[in-house]
Amino acid sequence: MHLHTTHIFHKARETLRSPVYIKYILLTDVLCVISLSTSVMEPFNSQYRCGSLIASGGFGSVFSGQRLCDGLKVAIKMIFRERVPLPQWARLPGEVGPVPTEITLLQRLAEVGVHSSVVRMLDWFEMKGRGFLLVLECPPHAQDLFDFITERGPLPECLALRFLRQIVEGLRFLHAHGIVHRDIKDENIVVDTQTLDVKIIDFGSAAPLKETPYSEFNGTRVFSPPEWIVSQTYKAVPLTVWSLGVLLFDMVCGDIPFQRNRDIISAAPVFTRQVSKDCQSLILWCLSYRPKERPTLEEILSHPWMEGGEAGQWLYRTIENTHSKLK
């Protein structure tokens, strides 16, 4: 069994295969189609076409889609009203009722500009009594990082570096505009398999950035830091950096370093693959037990390991292209 396929704590592969879950997905798909066929959804139906189910998570489901005016490929996220926790609602100027915080934050980003490493919301619609539809950009050759690693195994450090640099730059953009993602993990990173560019997706757990501690967490437990496990509190930047340490370990070793709470609290990852000393140094720095001892995003970018890799990235892309032609 591939190492990464045992990673069921943050992506329940066995659950996804179960008949009960499949029936639930099919029911969700049918309900979506029914919802979109009502007169309430006429504004959406006149602009977009909803396709097949891509994924389903805690707050709702994501479908493939197409913008009718130009044929643009999009992702359509359906958020079920009853699944959005109370802290994840906010007010949007001009709207009568509250909307999911995810919408308000993505709308804020849409107004200030775009970043190549952050997904862009193109539009959104409310389904009266049911929930909301978010229309998101979708790279033409998209694959989430979890599946990317599962198919290829542990990534070469040069490629992990390329991905990490883009992710950190995207996070700096988010923080500069007052947003903390709070659920950085491989499933929430989409890779364009042709360009090897990445985008941060899924702002369902995101929140306005603040200096004071947070006391609620809707992210993924195995990517959460020791302070959350121990005291149910954390600060934005140390949380983000810890998650990046878990993610970098995941990329170069092929699986996450921690699964049980006691493993997270120990903050002592065991490297299961040969990893360079500089890469290990950065991972261990990000996974420091004490939040104050972790680096900032800027310090991650200036770490010695982050200074190399351009030639290696070119070589990796050349090898990938060669393999694709031979298939």
From TrEMBL:
GO terms for cellular component: cytoplasm. Residues 48-306 form the Protein kinase domain. It holds the Pfam family Pkinase. One of its GO terms (molecular function) is ATP binding. It catalyses: L-seryl-[protein] + ATP = O-phospho-L-seryl-[protein] + ADP + H(+); L-threonyl-[protein] + ATP = O-phospho-L-threonyl-[protein] + ADP + H(+). Keywords: ATP-binding, Kinase, Nucleotide-binding, Phosphoprotein, Serine/threonine-protein kinase, Transferase. InterPro entries: Kinase-like_dom_sf (IPR011009), PIM1/2/3 (IPR017348), PIM_Ser/Thr_kinase (IPR051138), Prot_kinase_dom (IPR000719), Ser/Thr_kinase_AS (IPR008271). GO terms for biological process: negative regulation of apoptotic process. Belongs to the protein kinase superfamily. CAMK Ser/Thr protein kinase family. PIM subfamily. This is Serine/threonine-protein kinase. It comes from Sander lucioperca.
